[in-house]
């Protein structure tokens, strides 16, 4: 619907927000119910799915508009104003949300298509966020994906319903319509044009309107600068695009001018990417500050650096509000407390590293068969209904589950119920209970012990494995010194063993690959700090693929270091090593527990999960691994947003891995360069799992007959792939083939 007179906007003002709503969205002036609706819309936790995560965050939500019985799908775009340039721009022209809202209403009055604007809201603080809400275009396709395929020469295969020359002419005609009405869009790129469907005749919509300027008449330079931003790289395609803008194309002088602008814009984009990364790192070094998502609350004023931690419910973890400089000051003050454990463990650490290198080389030369098992999932509080979680765990077929309890909140009754359900179900599941701390429990030893005692009394009938503490090498979890964690471990282990003499205690749950931190925490030699199994939260997501190296070690090498440390440590009773937490975060804005540089898409996450589990369990270097967590926005196997629990590709991949390999005898294969693989023998069948770690296509010819081929998620393949990629493939062979 365009070209209509929508009436004047209706202003509203709350305690901390001001904004306006379109008259088509509400029946009357904004009231208390409307306030609740706005609060819900602007909370990213209410989003049903993420649409884009960049300098701004876009997500889909639901809103019951005026005179409508059913809820309408809307898009919420969250703008940030947390740097000096954005604040100055907001002072001069208003927030980008307000500009987007008013530009959209004006474009629609001109008959130019853009999704229906519904609302904008902005914080009263100049540095606070602002939001723009419009109607969702269902199944919208960004023009950028069509142009990428067109530039790569794959558009006919990827988009068979689109005739590229006709579509390019339509895009050019849309630009001409803008300019005819005096609209200088200033950001007319492929990402800001939506197709209602992947067809030539799809309706086109313009989005991202905050930079648009409205003039009586545009200069030639302004028009050509607008046109030059569209990334149409091939000369023939540019000719079609410009023919749509002006029949017969541009005059020769304007065409030269256009080409200069076009090439200059492409050069500017390429140079800005590298410059932005460098400037960001430099500014972080010179002006250390915390970049939090707008929904993360501020720490209380006047609190010390060690107390400036707040809880982020969207990532299910604390957020450290202390700046880099403040944390450095605390570390320097506590340097002696950190130096003593490091000095005590230096020799064992060096010996463990040397041993791990020998083990890693031997793994390639003379791999040994191992029994595949120990693949599990973790569940945190409040992630999903108990019945749904129990059903998903049964469907996955995993035989071990870790339940994480936030003891500053007490024993979560839903997790306790889940523990009873899993323990006494038709297929009993081995349970591990993790007791996490915050700063209040680190400060109050008596309260910590009391909470552990309460938790053990409630959970002991369901299991005997207890993990004490969480990420002691990260100050956001409340432990600033090694002594902070040792106090938690001593009190927690004593409380566990007092009620369960046969309990198995795990520690210390160091996060990421920081072997010096692990070594320092497990070489005290004091009996009160004794534990049974080394627990590590071995994230390798910051390195990308699990096979990528860090400090000279790939994933198998890192696991070898940890296992060697466990065997040498006087505090570890068994020499056993488990990975109690790993995942790859998704590019889903504030739900992702790490930054955009670490985030991956759902397909890569699923492939990395399988490859991580195979390298860890198939090599025998870890006894168990647990994915964190089963249901969560931003990283979970299941997406709890929207209606029900959506199974992500990682869920399907883990389920298929468990079905194919659980209980099998697994042997690492010696593969050609650029390929990895494992052979599994189970019930008289041989299954080969193969992939190319680099993600690039690598040719592969399996030895012997292949009876069946299945992809990573369990779908049958019509033929054996001649080229392997990053997604593992299962090949069921006729008879055991030589390695």
Explain what this protein looks like in three dimensions.
A hairpin with an 8-residue loop joins strand 4 and strand 5 (72-79). The chain starts with 9 loop residues before the first strand and ends in a 6-residue tail after the last strand. The protein is of the alpha+beta class. The protein contains 20 helices and 33 strands. The strands form 8 sheets. The protein has an 8-stranded parallel barrel with strand order 16-17-18-19-20-21-22-23, surrounded by 6 helices. It has a 7-stranded antiparallel sheet with strand order 1-2-6-7-5-4-3, with helices on both faces. Helices cover 37% and strands 21% of the residues.
Cα-atom radius of gyration: 29 Å
Helix percent reads: 25-40%
Q: Mind describing the biggest β-sheet?
A: 8 strands, parallel, barrel
* Distance between the amino and carboxyl termini: 65 Å
Low-confidence residue ranges: 1-5
- Strand line-up across the major sheet: 16-17-18-19-20-21-22-23
Based on Cα principal axes, name the global outline: globular
Q: Kindly report the average pLDDT value.
A: 92
How would you summarize the topology of this molecule?
Blueprint: E1 10-13, E2 17-21, H1 32-42, E3 49-53, E4 57-63, E5 72-79, H2 84-93, H3 96-109, E6 117-123, E7 130-135, E8 141-142, H4 143-152, H5 155-158, H6 164-180, E9 183-184, E10 193-195, E11 204-206, E12 213-214, H7 220-228, H8 235-245, H9 252-286, E13 309-312, E14 317-320, H10 324-333, H11 335-365, E15 370-371, E16 375-379, H12 386-396, E17 400-406, H13 413-423, E18 430-436, H14 439-443, H15 445-459, E19 465-468, H16 482-499, E20 504-511, H17 515-521, E21 531-537, H18 555-568, E22 572-582, H19 602-617, E23 625-628, E24 638-639, E25 646-647, H20 649-661, E26 665-668, E27 676-682, E28 685-691, E29 698-699, E30 706-710, E31 716-717, E32 723-724, E33 729-733
Parallel strand pairs: 16-17, 16-23, 17-18, 18-19, 19-20, 20-21, 21-22, 22-23
Antiparallel strand pairs: 1-2, 2-6, 3-4, 4-5, 5-7, 6-7, 8-10, 9-12, 10-11, 13-14, 15-26, 24-25, 26-27, 27-28, 28-33, 29-32, 30-31, 30-33
